[in-house]
Model the fold of this input.
Amino acid sequence: MKKILKWLLLSYLTVTAFVIISQEFPVSNKCDYLIWSQTPKISVMYFFGTKRCSMCKNMEMWANEITQNISHSKTLPPIEFRTIPWQDKKSKSYVDHYKLLGNALIISYADERREVARKDLIDIWPVAHDEKRYKKYVMVEFQKFITQITSKNLPLSSFDGGRK
Done:
């Protein structure tokens, strides 16, 4: 009887330790927002490095402005702007998932369960020095992304988003 109790206690402690460790060191390489998203949403993610020049700060600011302007649309799901330090160890899942090699601007659409579509705006660098060209490029690519999603019959048009 004592052996059984010891075995059960040891099993319980082992399982408990495993659960605690797996929460602190997740095995999944999926990005956190892809896992916890409970409603469909579009994410505009600016990945930046530890050394930030004025051009990089401007690109972040302009991308955020564009996102804020677009987020008032009542025909799209919620849109969020995120800045993520790609060189930070905590961002390894993003680096792996998006195969990042440096600063980047990525648009992603996730439903309740997973990322459905994404677009890496790889041509931000040639227009990074010119605010108007940069904003035009990002807006055109965003519109292409929305067109791509809607052509797959994803439920974007049903959103009123509750926005005022």
